[in-house]
Amino acid sequence: MSAGCEEASSLTPDLGPKPETDAASAIQSEFDALVASHHDTTESSLGLSGQIRETPNSVQWAFDNRFGEPFDIGWNQTARKRMPNPVRIALIDESFDVEAPGLKHAFDVDSGINLLEPNKPFWFAHRNGSHHGNLVASIIANRPVTKIDPLGVLAGHDVELIPIVAAGGHGPAWRTPRSSPEMILAGLRHAIGVQADIINISAGIDVSQEQLETLAADPIWTRLEEAGIQIVCAAGNDGRNIDESPIFPASIPNDNVIAVMGMGPTGQPSRRPLESGEWILGTNFGPQTVTVAGPGELVEVQARPDQPELANGTSIAAAFVTAALAMDPRMHVMPVPGLETQCRSRGLIQLPEQP
């Protein structure tokens, strides 16, 4: 996300070490045990075909939170009826492995584009084999092909993921400033041109208030609003108040722009670890700018086709919100006490109830 990191305002939450630390340890231990139990199998995800599981595994707390209940997205397998029509989701991100076994059913390669490296493959800006676009896509649509693979929220639905490479770049470097506001705008124009129903953006660029106003005046925002397309944006991972220090595009002040912060398993704003092992506030927040929270701490993802991992960040949180809004554009939210001063909705995204 954005490279800058400023001192947070007085609204910065007091995380309190004990419950969060206990939950994090339990999730990590559960994940380690899951991987260890699978370690000796002769089958890898690259050697299997077809979805083998239709339910979340034990470490996917965002679906069914055994580590800090009741804070999850309200998954109920018995109520997950198939959507009547395919949904087209544009992913503006860094790189994509469109042949990943759990996701190749979903990628609409013909509708995709590489704006970062024109005429290069979608995977060109990977990070030593890790694809940030797949990390996001795995939350939305992954169909597990091994016991340890994560289940995507929309794995049981017809989903068309449109890969748009317009964030990050320069190979494996973490969040290099290769993207620009103009490239993000170009990605939005492409998304509307290929009939996306909803757009997910995993990019964030620090801008001044004056720059934000100029960017917000671009005609693409009116086109998107008139088309009824929601744009779900990661709020950033600097632990700062973006009401005071805007980030593009999450700070665009339009009703159809959904800025998403992260939440941890105990209902507190999501954290990130330092190399020392200490956990600090990770998610950006903003009671005026940020719309809602999604699970964003110690979430199982699959950025590599054969290597699930636990990850943190608002790109993860945004993917959950995108999946929920793809099912129903009317936002459903669970009030969360720890988020009361952090975002406008004061709560966590929920999957819609289905009859």
Give a quick set of tags describing it.
355 residues; alpha/beta; Rossmann fold; two-stranded antiparallel ribbon; 6 helices; globular
Question: What do these coordinates show?
Answer:
It is a single chain. By secondary structure, the chain is of the alpha/beta class. The chain has a single domain, classed as Rossmann fold (3-Layer(aba) Sandwich), CATH 3.40.50. The chain has helices at 17-38, 132-141, 181-193, 209-216, 219-226, 314-327; strands at 87-93, 113-114, 159-165, 198-201, 205-206, 230-234, 247-248, 257-263, 271-273, 279-281, 292-295, 299-304, 307-311, 332-335, 347-350. The strands form five sheets. Strands 2-3-1-4-6-8-11 form a seven-stranded parallel beta sheet, sandwiched between helices.
Summarize the structure.
21% of the residues lie in helices and 18% in strands.
